[in-house]
Fold this sequence. Notes:
The chain is built from eleven helices and five strands, in the order αβαβααβαβαβααααα.
Amino acid sequence: MAVMDQIMEALRSPIVDMIGVHGTSGVGKTMLVKEVKRKAKQDSLFPTVVMTKVTKNRELKRIQEDIARDLGMDQLPFTELTDQQVADRIRARLLKEKKFLIILDDVWETEIALEEIGIPSASGLQQPIDRKNEISSSSEEHPVTCKSLLVSKERDVLLRRMDSEYHQVFEVRKLEPDESWELFKKTIGDNVESPDLQHLAEEIVAKCLGLPVAIVSVANAMRGKTQLYEWKDALLSLKNPSPMGISAVIYKALEL
């Protein structure tokens, strides 16, 4: 089962209240959870879906502003309120919701507790259910209430940040060589299969190391380029990384 399907299944589960997604930079975690956000709203799993990026810098106010904006609290006088006052208002707003999903992307070791942001703990929000009968339980018998989805490079970071015993963690892996090539072709177009360009294109894709974000970024940068020297220059740039050329495109895409 694809990771996307596994996450959506966990969101529908009456048992799981926290979900973790991890994987190396460039593997497509953010793109994946953005699609999860879209699908969760489209399928009416959660009327309220909030997403923000945490990052390794302690930017509590910015995180709170992102969440407040998604909750329709744009007019909140952030400059006049303390972090705790903003957290209290976010918490009060969330507690009015029967169902909500909070997505925190790019979670690091930086200690910002969910309660500090204004997100109630998962354990304190779930309705009492019979955890022992997980297999026979259904979402109709035990409606999903609220969940948190955390995204990080490191699995251990997720496990340390989850305050619930009933969580699931999923890894987003690199693509296999054939999957990488198909993604590259789909993004750039089939013209790369010409005899003159294909061997260079395949080498360039191999240098992307199975990272979807890198593959898509390079494909977009090379779209429309038909001259052999342009592809040779791109491959040379990847073999000898520098702040210029196609290697810089990958560097920026991965946000290293």
